[in-house]
Amino acid sequence: SSRTTSLLSQLEKINLDSVLGEANNARYVTSKILHLVQSQEKTRKEMTSKGSTGIEVILSTLEVKPFNLCGYGQIAHFHFITGLHFSGGRRASVLVTKGGTQILLQLLLTASKDTPPNEDLMVLLHTLLAKIGPKDKKIGVKARINGAINISLNLVKQNLQNHRLILPCLQVLRVYSSNYVNAVSLGKNGVVELLFKIVGPFTKTSTSLMKVALDTLTALLKSKTNARRAVERGYMQLLLRIYVDWHRHDSRHRYMLIRKGVLQCIKSVTNIKLGRKAFIDANGMKILYNTSQECLAVRTLDPLVNTSSLIMRKCFPKNRLPLPTIKSAFHFQLPVIPASGPVAQLYNLPPDVDDVVDESDDNDDAETELEIETENDDDKDQHFKNDDIETDINKLKPRQELGRPTEDLKMYKRFFPELSETFQECVLVSKEPKPFVPDANLNGPIVVPTAGEE
Asked: How far apart are CA 323 and CA 302, in angstroms?
């Protein structure tokens, strides 16, 4: 009955017609809907309400009309602008549940075949994917299967100076990097080195691009393979220099998020033993300690102090108690220490030696295989029911066991006879009234009640 419903019905009829001449009518209808969406919040709520087919019509238009995408740019522009209005919170989830992620990835693959690709369309596609991506847990797997990861990566490599284009591309790569297999694959393709070209010294220009690049780099460095690659290329020293540079120039503390992003990158690298060693060799302990002392007076910089403290605690050498060295403020004397043994060997170690076994620098190829197997198992679970799950409620209830055996409780039998006796031999008392028998010992007249008297 509403104007929006009428326009959506017209657009749905146009989708069923494969004639290219219908493009003009489609442009007219979509421009009307676009005006309503941009001007009225009621229209946006109506299109995402339960029972509404607005999102289905929009997605079907993108799906059934992939031909001449650049020439059809006005309609595509409308749909993506509409999607941007719907991309917040629950509205983004609506697009995901309707299959919007798969359609957008397919459109990205189709648009990338044009030479050169339409920049406006690429910006809109990546912007929408970055907004709805966090709502789709399987977007990393879908992008890898469709080959969309390489498309975004090539756009970044070929347009390093085009900040308008690479900003949404980096946002999408950040979403893709949440998948462990994608993070390892991107690292092998040189994304870590590419991001360090963007993350540079202090500059007030392109701070938004710097923040997104640091977030993407943090997600990539959570992979042990990428963290080792960063250490081997000397990027730990570079990260510390970048952090000190921003700390010195950001006197008004306007770019605290960028400084925190650099610390998050350092924190990700120090998750492995090789990264912690590189941090200590680069004098990182002294650098973070001094910068933290200067940040204590400003309460808004508490996140920087907390993150720096976590990094320093993680990288400080770990030793077992008791510590007979100068590193300990207390001394614990053992009663007997064998001349040869593990305790004597620990006591004879130099003060700066980390005597705690660190297994965090193991090869993570097995972890990659485990991640792939987990994804395959998740895909299988969508089609097959797990028979190993117990569904009987009686079996799931915990069994209550007595605190002591039954034989020990027999000593209390005489206190509770009602629990052991059956009372089957008891005589039942009749409810009929007994005849009155006078008692000879009673003095005085005897009065016999007549019938009807109480």
From this structure: 32
124-146 per-position pLDDT tens digit? 889 888 888 888 888 999 999 98
Instruction: Please check whether residue 111 is in contact with residue 155, taking contact to mean a CB–CB distance below 8 angstroms.
Output: no
The whole model's pTM is what? Answer: 0.68
Where do we find the tokens 């050169």?
Answer: 116
Which H or E run contains 111? helix 100-111
User: CA-to-CA distance for 318 and 312, rounded, in angstroms?
Assistant: 12
**CA 8/CA 84 separation, integer angstroms:** 18
Residue with tokens 């938004």: 208
Domain ranges of the chain: 1-98
Task: Provide the 3-class DSSP secondary structure of residue 441.
Answer: coil
- What is the per-residue pLDDT across 84-103, written as a single tens digit (0 to 9) for each? 555 455 667 777 877 888 88
Q: Identify the CA nearest to 230 among candidates 283, 182, 279.
A: 279
Question: Which residues are CB-neighbours of 122 under 8 A, at least 6 positions away?
Answer: 108, 111, 112, 155, 165, 169
Q: Could you tell me the two tokens for 250?
A: 């950001």
If DSSP codes are grouped into helix, strand and coil, which group holds residue 108?
Answer: helix
